[in-house]
From TrEMBL:
Species in which this protein is naturally found: Pseudaminobacter salicylatoxidans
Location within or outside the cell: Cell inner membrane; Cell membrane
KW Calcium (keyword) present: no
PROSITE patterns (UniProt xref): ABC_TM1
Alphabetically ordered keywords of this record: Cell inner membrane, Cell membrane, Membrane, Transmembrane, Transmembrane helix, Transport
Record protein name field: Polar amino acid transport system permease protein/arginine/ornithine transport system permease protein
Highest classification ranks of the organism: Bacteria, Pseudomonadati, Pseudomonadota, Alphaproteobacteria, Hyphomicrobiales
Membrane topology: Multi-pass membrane protein
Superkingdom, natural source: Bacteria
Transmembrane annotation, as ranges: 20-42, 54-74, 86-106, 161-182, 194-215
GO molecular function, one term: transmembrane transporter activity
Residue ranges annotated for the ABC transmembrane type-1 domain, each copy included: 19-216
Length: 229
């Protein structure tokens, strides 16, 4: 078995199309997951029923594999009459929508815990000072706590994002032709598993390392004041 550069070049259009599908799934999931995670993280910091509900949400979606959630959303929920016989069928019959829902739930569970940790790490003196200056809790959150928490959680967010890039390969199970599925398709009609899969792995490696470089630059910018002290 050897690597065939000619086959790799010929299959590149299919692999790049699969890469485009990977990003079409990934980018909405990152945005939606972050928006969903923030209120859950804030609820997790409170006490009472809200905190318990948020803790249960985080524990459940961090504990269930992404692939299981994708199967549940794509194949399980449409079996319910409230989905199958209503306007919801328009959404849940779409593989992209189901991929967004399934991966967003997973991503939001992890991100909620990451954000909670970042907010909890903000010194109480900052909150007390903002109150003394007359800032409202909303102003304190968006002007002080979240910017400070962003510095604390950047590394954890980087790890979660890189994991999500690789988790998108699970969407091939619900008929989407992402990068992994495209490589398997090339394998199916060439009977050469090595070349397309190694090429796909190289593309994933490039994506991950470009993102890692971006996070390194962001980390330097956010913490540039520390380098001068």
């Amino acid at each position: 078995m050897h690597y065939d550069p000619i086959l790799a070049w010929q299959s590149m259009p299919d692999l790049l199309a699969g890469t485009a599908t990977t990003f079409a799934v990934l980018l909405p999931v990152l945005v939606l997951g972050l928006l969903l995670a923030l209120p859950i993280a804030l609820a997790r910091l409170e006490t009472g029923p809200k905190a318990k509900a948020a803790a249960g949400y985080i524990a459940f979606f961090r504990g269930v594999p992404s692939l299981v959630l994708l199967y549940l959303v794509y194949s399980g929920l449409p079996q319910l009459s409230i989905v199958r016989d209503t306007f919801l069928w328009t959404f849940f019959s779409n593989a992209y929508f189901c991929a967004w829902v399934g991966l967003t739930l997973t991503h939001s569970g992890y991100m909620a815990e990451i954000i909670r940790g970042g907010l909890a790490a903000v010194p109480t003196g900052v909150i007390e000072a903002s109150t003394a200056l007359g800032l409202t809790p909303r102003q304190t959150l968006f002007r002080l706590r979240l910017p400070m928490a962003a510095r604390y959680v950047l590394k954890a967010y980087q790890n979660e994002l890189l994991i999500m890039v690789k988790s998108t390969s699970a969407v091939s199970a619900i008929t989407l032709v992402d990068l992994t599925a495209a490589a398997n398709t090339v394998f199916d009609y060439t009977y050469d598993p090595f070349t397309p899969l190694v090429t796909a792995a190289a593309i994933y490696w490039c994506i991950v390392n470009l993102m890692r470089t971006g996070f390194t630059l962001a980390d330097r910018k956010l913490n540039r004041h520390l380098a001068r002290t």
